[in-house]
Specification:
- This protein is an alpha+beta fold.
- The chain is 54% helix and 18% strand.
- The chain has 2 domains: 89 residues, no CATH class; 97 residues, Beta-Lactamase, CATH 3.30.450.
- A 5-stranded antiparallel β-sheet has the order 2-1-5-4-3.
- The longest helix is centred in the middle third of the chain and has 45 residues.
Length: 195
């Protein structure tokens, strides 16, 4: 057991000596290049008194390098999987058969899916920042505000019918449901076309 402690002490001493040589004996200097480090390691391996410890240190560095390469592979694989999952969730959100909206307390549109944009009759980007209640008949806008107030007060599973104004056409009746946005920044709404 004591020989292991001595061996560890020698490796630590060897590491300190190598760091000292790489840094030119001055603490806090910039790290030396990899070729400088290999040069010091080669020099230590060439000396009979430090060769065994230098080879052990070299082996430790090689193992550490392989570990880092494996971690890099895992991170790249995880990133690829996460990007694919995110892409799939975006596709599901945009293709949902109901209009999905994220609004603030004043019904300003923060986010919406493609189905929601189609229901409102505009491109998605043209709708961001606009008040959702402006797309409804006045009585429906009031109903929407009541729905959001009740949702804010903690009422669950609130659902109502709203009349969505259509350019040059009869109003479209949608069923609306609301929930508090988990981010705490407003509300999530879902509209389904019921004719």
């Amino acid at each position: 057991m004591s020989s292991q402690l001595v061996g560890l002490g020698r490796q630590a001493d060897l590491r300190l000596r190598a760091l000292s040589r790489l840094n030119g004996g001055v603490a806090g200097q910039q790290r030396a290049s990899a070729s400088d480090a290999l040069g010091v390691l080669f020099e230590l391996a060439s000396s009979p008194s430090t060769a065994d410890d230098a080879l052990a240190l070299l082996h430790e560095l090689q193992v550490h390098q392989v570990e880092l390469e494996l971690q890099d592979e895992e991170l790249r694989s995880s990133r690829t999987e996460l990007e694919a999952a995110l892409s799939r969730q975006i596709e599901l959100y945009d293709a949902a058969p109901v209009g999905c909206f994220s609004v603030d307390a004043r019904t300003v549109l923060c986010e919406l899916n493609l189905t929601g944009a189609r229901l409102l009759g505009f491109e998605r980007n043209a709708l961001l920042g606009r008040a959702l209640d402006s797309f409804f008949a006045p009585h429906s806008a009031d109903t929407l505000h009541t729905l959001l107030a009740r949702t804010s007060a903690g009422h669950q599973a609130e659902v109502c019918k709203l009349e969505l104004l259509q350019l040059g056409a009869e109003p479209l009746t949608v069923q609306a449901s609301a929930a508090i946005d988990p981010s705490g920044q407003g509300f999530l709404l879902a509209f389904s076309d019921i004719g």
